[in-house]
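--- STAGE predict ---
source: upstream dedup step, 1 unique chain passed
mode: sequence only
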Amino acid sequence: MKDGPVRVGIIGSQFQADCHAASISMIENDMTVVAVASPTASHAQALADRFKIPRVYSDYKELAKDAAIEAVTITAPNALHCEMTVAMAEAGKHVICEKPLCITLEEADRMIEACRVNGVLLLYAEELFFTPKYAKAKEMADSGAFGKVHVIKQSEKHFGPHAEWFWDVKRAGGGALFDLGCHGIAFAYWFLGRPKILSAYSHLGTYVHGNKTQLDDEAVTIIEFEGNAFSIIENSWARRGGMDDRIEVYGEGGMTIANLQMGNALPTYSEYGFGYAVEKAPTTQGWSWPVFEELWNYGFPQEMRHFARAIRGLEAPQATGEDGKVVLEAVYAAYASAGLGCKVALPYTPTAERPVNEWLNRRKA
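--- STAGE serialize ---
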């Protein structure tokens, strides 16, 4: 086992890469960023300048050759996750892969196998497992506070992604359901103790952003679990006013509600506006709810510290490639459900090359 902070390279240079770099800067005794790779040179250099990252590469394959790097975080478009993971695994580097894990179940198998064969970890970056409020809710549930939990509601809503590639069917693979619903599915699956997923039922559509994408911008999904429990997952790329992320947990003996932003916000009114309020908020004129310690409240630094300790062999990984594959299969079934107009049982064998096409192909037919 090596000593000292885990030396990490970040692949990507936009919003999520910034979140990773900022979070890692908060845990400098556990992890440090030593390189960034992005084909967009100006973005990569700007990220390096902001966080004093010493090396910048224009090609992730060059980063793979850097012997000083022990692990990478992948924040690139979804369609690139598989090829990047395989390349990094073959270079002997642990992989922290942003959600969703990849586009297809075959890609998920390739990623998992490449990391297994090369003796490196494939860590699935699902930060809701580490979000303090949500982790506290699970701690209470596990202690018996609510009795048998039978319903979990999770919603994540905003007005759409930062980067242009998210709107592209081929590079993204899915819309609000894929981008945000993977959080809710993973959260409910984890919260309930990883029971078998029995079915998915989803309604979705493109209601606001049809001028620039075929992808879904609103989705409501019901996931049924073994053990007589289900989750309701609500996702939107069409909600004005910034990020909204919350959970509700119901058991026969109690319940709890957590609102991720509002409980950590300062209700504020400004005629003039100011700097940053909260993720995805377009303006700060009028009423806004600026947050503090945003990354910590989301769980990003805690997630990265856990991954560092997992790489050092000090903790068992909480979120792995296998978790990402379970979520991906459920997402495929949910898109198929939206296309078919009925509940779809799992296991589900995909009929399309990417999740959203399970819906789009049937809609066109």
